[in-house]
Amino acid sequence: MSTGAAETDTQAEKVANTSGITVSSLKQALKEKLDAEYVEIEDMSGGCGQAFNAMIVSSQFENKNSLARHRLVNSALKAEIAAIHAWTPKCITPAEWWKKQGVGKT
User: Fold this and answer.
1) What is the Cα–Cα distance from 99 to 45, expressed in whole angstroms?
2) Which residues are CB-contacts of 65 (< 8 A; sequence separation ≥ 6)?
3) What 3-state DSSP class applies to 85?
């Protein structure tokens, strides 16, 4: 019995979602607007485009606290966030990303 939920990002892109927001559109916007080096987006809504978790790596987060980083992202994605139900970003700098990966960037 199928639940109607997409099981992969590719399937989710093909599903007519209710918000018009997709994993791809969010990635593109973040890369363009925040010059993000790495973006990982997960659609938590089963493909309907209503709830997303994000990992965003950008040098624009340097010297900003967590609140300032989230405000920067929310400002960059104002229209997209208004169209969805839930948005949970994790915003880190490239140095924090490399440390998290256990690799020293040389």
Assistant:
1) 30
2) none
3) coil
Counting Cα atoms < 13 Å in the Cβ hemisphere of 58 gives: 26
Over residues 14-29, the mean pLDDT reads 77
DSSP 6-29: -SSHHHHHHS--SSS--HHHHHHH
Residue 86 β-bridge partners: 51
Q: What's the whole-model pTM score?
A: 0.77
The answer to whether the Cα torsion of 79, 54, 70, 72 is positive or negative is negative
pLDDT of 48 over the 90 cut: no
Geometric angle at alpha carbon 41, from 40 and 45, rounded to 5°: 155
In sequence order, what are the residues at sequence separation of 6 or more whose Cβ sits closer than 8 angstroms to the Cβ of residue 4?
46
Residues β-bridged to residue 85? none
DSSP alpha helix (H) spans, the chain: 9-14, 23-34, 66-76, 78-82, 94-101
